[in-house]
Amino acid sequence: MKVLLIEATGNVGLRLVSALLTHGHNVVAHVRSAQKLESLLTESVHRQLSVIEGSALDANSIRTAILDKKCDAVVNSAGLAAVALWGKSDLPRIVAAVVEGVRQAGAERKKPLRVWFLGGMGALHFPGESSLLSDHVPILRDHCKNLALLKSLPPNTLDWSMLCPSNMDPESSNFTVPTKSSHTRLTASAQTPPLWKDSWLKNIPLIGKIIVIAMNMSRYGTTLEQNADFIATDLETLDSQYIGTQVGIIDASK
Ligand SMILES: NC(=O)c1ccc[n+]([C@@H]2O[C@H](COP(=O)([O-])OP(=O)(O)OC[C@H]3O[C@@H](n4cnc5c(N)ncnc54)[C@H](OP(=O)(O)O)[C@@H]3O)[C@@H](O)[C@H]2O)c1
């Protein structure tokens, strides 16, 4: 598949370059600094990319890149959510611009494009409920705002998914193609964290669900490489089971 990768210079973006190429995708990197990207990759990996300079806040630049390069799918790894409630981040404006650029390109093609966004674990549902984890533990609210935008889109606008990891650690800072990882593939589920450990403690008024979330949280740490590989594997087909939903993941082997 031909994939437009929006920003490739961050923690996830760099691993996505390696994972997408390893899975046989053609990669068009849409970055705000081509020079920075080149400095972060080996010559042999960089040579395999097509690079376009542009802003992730510019819907028209994204639309043009998709149409000119004939991309089939898009992955947005631009922006970083504010952790604290009072923190500021460009992420909601970036996601709004990406949605608009991809929507316009899909409308011109008369076919919605496949798009992966990165979210956070707080945008997943508390198992068995329609409330989000962030409704109980208010962190990373930008991801919830972005999820609300995606869910408000009319049908057949975007074939979107939002990957919702907890903390991601690096395995390595050598971005090789093919990738080398000693870790297993992730186990995933739509909407809720997979393999959630339920507890009667959730019934304690006011603090019960917070306790259960805290008990579970540390089990959901994964690596940046595992998440990049998850997206690259999913993009081997346009017929993904995760279209139109947020996706929880866990390293079930840990
Ligand atoms: N890392 C984690 O453990 C973790 C866990 C859960 C969820 N997430 C989510 O995953 C996503 C990616 O995280 P990350 O760790 O890869 O972040 P990161 O390392 O900070 O990378 C952010 C990327 O976004 C680009 N960027 C930042 N502001 C921009 C702007 N205004 N316009 C265009 N590009 C901009 C950066 O480009 P430059 O290099 O040019 O600055 C960089 O390529 C975020 O949404 C984050 O909230 C991360």
UniProtKB/TrEMBL annotation:
SUPFAM superfamilies for the chain: NAD(P)-binding Rossmann-fold domains
One MF term in GO for this entry?
oxidoreductase activity, acting on the CH-NH group of donors, NAD or NADP as acceptor
User: In this protein, which residues make up the domain named NAD(P)-binding?
Assistant: 8-172
Secretion signal, residue range per the UniProt entry: none
* This protein's name: NAD(P)-binding domain-containing protein
